[in-house]
Write a structure and sequence with these properties.
By secondary structure, the protein is mainly alpha-helical. It is built from 13 helices and no strands. The protein has helices at about 5-30, 35-60, 65-115, 120-135, 140-180, 185-225, 230-240, 250-265, 265-295, 300-335, 365-375, 380-400, 405.
Length: about 400
Amino acid sequence: MWSDALGRAGSRAAQLLLITALLAGLIWLLLRVSVVVIALLVALILASAVYPAVKWLKTKGWSSLLATLTALLGIVILAGGVVTGVVFAVTSQWDELTASAVEGWEELQQFIMDGPLPIDMATVDAALQEAAEFVTSDAFIGGAISGISAATQVVTGVVLIVVVLFFFLKDGPKIWNFTLRWFQGRIRAKLAESGDRAVQVLGGYVRGTALIAAVDAVFIGIGLAILGVPLALPLAVIVFVGSFLPIIGATIAGTLAALVALVTNGLVVALIVVAIVVAVNQIEGNLLQPVVMGRTLSLHALVVLLALTVGTFVGGIFGAILAVPLTAVAWSVIQVWTETYQSGDDPVLGPDPLADKDRAGSKASMAERWKYQRMRYPRLLKGTRRAEEEGSSDEESEAETPEAEKR
């Protein structure tokens, strides 16, 4: 009864349901250990970006342990210095910011009362009173306790990231070598190429995004400092971190800077800040992104936006940060494993929407392509080696033959 069309459709439906159930179970399991999963992904991304420095130190004669510790210490010092600078900046300007915020709030109240919009300040005051009561309520205290628990998980995740990052930097090639040895031939070659493309995409994405984020933070921070906006350094750091969210990150961070300027410095300064943010974003989108990122992502803007949305729903802020590079890695791996895509111009469909330089295969070096071929055809390589060894042995025996025997 399974041989007709309905039977085949039912068989396929049962297979799809089984695969869906397995995927759902796997996702449920990963969500149960989300701290470990996020730590592994973040460590992998950081290792992909930092490992070239470790490799360069090894070429200079440094030991693997010393090169790894140096790179790891550099990351810790850089992150610690940024956090320390932000804390000191906030502490030193907190009184000024509080006074300016109170003054700005009073000006905003006066503007609302004198403005054309029919807004009742009594309603605004009632809403503020309800907010104050919520802060002192049991629900808020319970949420604060949950926040402490979440902070504990964050600390645990950071420690785990540091530990895993150390081993990735020190023994990453050995771990990947051990993994590839469980496979042979074509499968091993495709896995090796997938790993190379994943490391290339992740490393290029992090380094390029960090450079672009630094440029955004420097220009916006300098503008805020010149305009006399309080907390210019912390706001610049927020711009730097926010730039790791493509399309929307820098805009959100710039909007926050404009709001601080509005509350503390007035409407005119806030509008100037908005103009600076817009100009920096235009420079980033039209100049820095194409030049710095180059062929790293090769993703359509719609795909990036959808990846951000899905990542935010699934993993919150960490999901939003990791969504785009992981999507780029998935696209590169799909190109490695599939052979159904018909590249080139088509007489009916027209030009190929995927340029040659954006394909995963074009991003491999000649040495990598030779490595993949040697993995695909190990028997041919063994035959070549055997022939070379036999030829060399014949030459040696001929050289050892006495001259009289040759005559």
